Amino acid sequence: RQGDPMGGARQGDPMGGARQGDPMGGARQGDPMGGARQGDHTDEGVALVARLAPRMGLPPADAATVETLVRHHLLLPEAATRRDLDDPGTAATVAAAVGDRETLGLLAALTEADARATGPTAWSPWKAGLVADLVERVGGLLEGRPPLSPPPPSEREARLLAGGRPAVDLDGGNLTVVAPRRTDLLAATAGVLALEGVSVRSATLRVSDGPMVLLSLQVAPARDILPAAGRIASDLAAALRGDVDLAAGIADQESRRPRSRPSAAAGLGGVVVRVDHQASATATLLEVHAPDRPGTLWRLAGTIALHDLETTGAIVATLGAEVVDTFYVRARSGERLQEGDERLGRAAREIAGLLGDGSSATAPR
Fold first, then answer.
1. Maximum CA pair distance of the chain?
2. Residue 97 near residue 72 (C-beta atoms within 8 A)
3. CB burial of residue 6 (10 Å; 0-12, 13-18, 19+)
4. Which residues are CB-contacts of 227 (< 8 A; sequence separation ≥ 6)?
């Protein structure tokens, strides 16, 4: 716009906001949106912008843009790290919130500036890549391009799947498991990895026309080196046969863990479980906020499986002493769950009670 105080992030520069003279060039020391105040800091920021924008001489349209940026300043990083980017519902939800390409570009710039101001670990190459991928997908949607299709299995994955027998392949931080279809596959895999000190960042299940399914996981070692694929395959086969007591192993691991101060999640009421039927057209989202402890993903995935539900995808995020795990679930038959499905309600309540006292499960929406 003429005299636009937002200066930047125009076409061809999606990350280019926060220039000199930009009224959003805050997020510095003393930033009213970044401090530890009572109440929700986003709501306080929106109210503050509504008061300050007219005094700063911003035109109403620009003031509305700034208000949108403040209201949704966590939208991109949360969607990028807690949702399946290959699910068209993720980009559609973000596009509906930001409204137009220009606001998306400004929000991308604000996201990076806010993360970098927080600290050096808040804007990792991993997170930056996810946010850039999301911005590209949302931008395409806002410009009228069709959503990107989920990528097909790689040649390596397709070759493993065509083998028709159980297999485990490890390529850097990408772990691929081919196994017979069963609802507890993710839980068993997560349990085996937990005992090896390996954390899971994300997991995606692909169902084939044959008897085998493909479970793709992004993993990272708690120590320097990942275990060999052969060791994971052997331990997983034993776990699926019931020859390994994962519960005992994880309990022993937890007993040897140094005690730490109660987490922020525990201080705010323990475990919170949210159910969302609207975020995806093919699955129901189960989002769990809980204190981090050994085997959390194993516990969560196992509880979901016990209720005859299949996890088709999982996004795992660790935020300090808290985990935020998002599961894409459907009926074991492959059908999408309907609102009010009691299996989902029972699973949510059991998860809330399983991971901590004073926990709560929110009603499905």
1. 70
2. yes
3. buried
4. 196, 198
| Helix residue ranges, H only, 291-355 | 296-306, 342-355
CB atoms within 10 A of CB 324: 19
| Assigned token pair, 312 | 């088709």
19-28 contacts, C-beta under 8 A, 24 or more apart: 23/56, 23/58, 23/66, 24/66, 24/69, 24/106, 24/110, 25/113, 27/110, 27/113, 27/114, 27/117, 28/117
pLDDT along the chain (365 residues), means of 10: 39 38 34 36 86 91 92 93 90 94 96 92 90 96 88 84 90 92 92 91 80 89 86 95 92 75 47 90 91 87 92 82 89 88 90 63 38
Helix (H) or strand (E) holding 256: none
C-alpha span between 278 and 328 (Å, rounded): 12
Residues 6+ apart with CB under 8 A from 156: 169, 171, 176
Are the beta carbons of 77 and 47 closer than 8 angstroms? no
Q: Give the contacts of 314 (CB within 8 A, at least 6 positions apart).
A: 186, 200, 202, 203, 204, 297, 301, 325, 326, 327, 328
What residue type is 282 in one-letter code?
Answer: T
Contact between 355 and 296 (Cβ < 8 Å): yes
Please indicate, yes or no, whether the overall pTM of this predicted structure exceeds 0.90. no
